[in-house]
Amino acid sequence: MAVGWAIIGAGMHPQQKLAPAIVLTPDAELIGVLSRDQGRADAFAEAHGAKAGYSDLDALLADSRIDAVFVSSPNAAHVGHTLAAAKAGKHVLSEKPMATSVEDAAAMVEACKSNGVKLGLGFELRFHPAHRVARDLVSQDKLGRVRLLQGHWGRGERKEPEHLPRTGLRDWWEDPEQMGGGSVIMGLGVHVFDLVRFVMQQEVTEVSAMTDGQTDAQPLEHIATMGLRLEDGTIANISCGRMLPDTLNDFTVYGTDGRFTGHATVWEARMGDMEVVSETVNKTEAWEYNYLANFIDEITDFQDAIKGDREPAASGIDGLRSTEINSAVIESAKTGRSVKIEHKKA
Ligand SMILES: NC(=O)c1ccc[n+]([C@@H]2O[C@H](COP(=O)([O-])OP(=O)(O)OC[C@H]3O[C@@H](n4cnc5c(N)ncnc54)[C@H](OP(=O)(O)O)[C@@H]3O)[C@@H](O)[C@H]2O)c1
Q1: What single DSSP character describes residue 49?
Q2: Which pLDDT score, from 0 to 100, does residue 157 have?
Q3: 159 and 289: one domain?
Q4: Can you tell me whether residue 289 is helix, strand or coil?
């Protein structure tokens, strides 16, 4: 039976990626969408073939055709939307960053657990086949002892098209409270932190960050570079920025016996190529540009998690751990000191 979906949020990400991906995913049906404005909800529903537009959260959650919600509202709203959906018995796939505080992330995990619904995170980089190869190489010891990981994600500046009237709908991206105290850390860095955890299957124990923000004069950073220490001492070096339209967006794992590199694989769309050079494995592979493939696989995995009663590939705990890293990185950028991470019990 098809899984009935609603999207909480009718912004750019749902418009361009989530709704088209749900429509293309086998056994998925787009039932509803939530906007604060009924006209925008109806227009979204019509554009994507959803059954109903809602401007009232309770009414959406009372729709029995909806089994799961994709929470894609502004960052600070994820917690409220998730708690309400869990209480209504709906499974939740939340966009990143999961929450703007570790306490909120833990509350989301607890609410989904106590209401018996699945909680997943929108970490689509886990679904690029290159990154799955990297994870397998590491778990099978094909690169020897991993010493260093490097990842970066940059993009051009976010601008509203000048020929269109100003809507203000995207102003929250410049509001430290709505964002959770970080800009590119919350937008891009969080994906790469999760990728490091995914590939290494280890937790991050300490971080050190340098940014051009986290000050009174400039609360939100445009560029950030971060060092992460993993449980076994391995170090990861991550950079991200939003005024870098020509970044390579590579991800590299250096081991004592070899190296994995994903060239341009750190992006929402599936694209780029991979190079593995090691004592035992030498291979390259390239992927044709596919805008929605990672999202379709993410939604498919979440549906399989519901049907098979298992955790999704990126679970609520993965979201909680990534939120702990975000908070530590922001604290480190503010204080100029490295920050050790205490993992919250969940
Ligand atoms: N996984 C990924 O790769 C990826 C990529 C992009 C974004 N995201 C995440 O997806 C989420 C949504 O991003 P987006 O790009 O769709 O954002 P967006 O285009 O800025 O849209 C968010 C929508 O939220 C509503 N909104 C605006 N200001 C608000 C406020 N102050 N309070 C409550 N609602 C407000 C507006 O819709 P209405 O007024 O119509 O309700 C707006 O259209 C974010 O958490 C973002 O981090 C993830």
Answers
A1: T
A2: 81
A3: yes
A4: coil
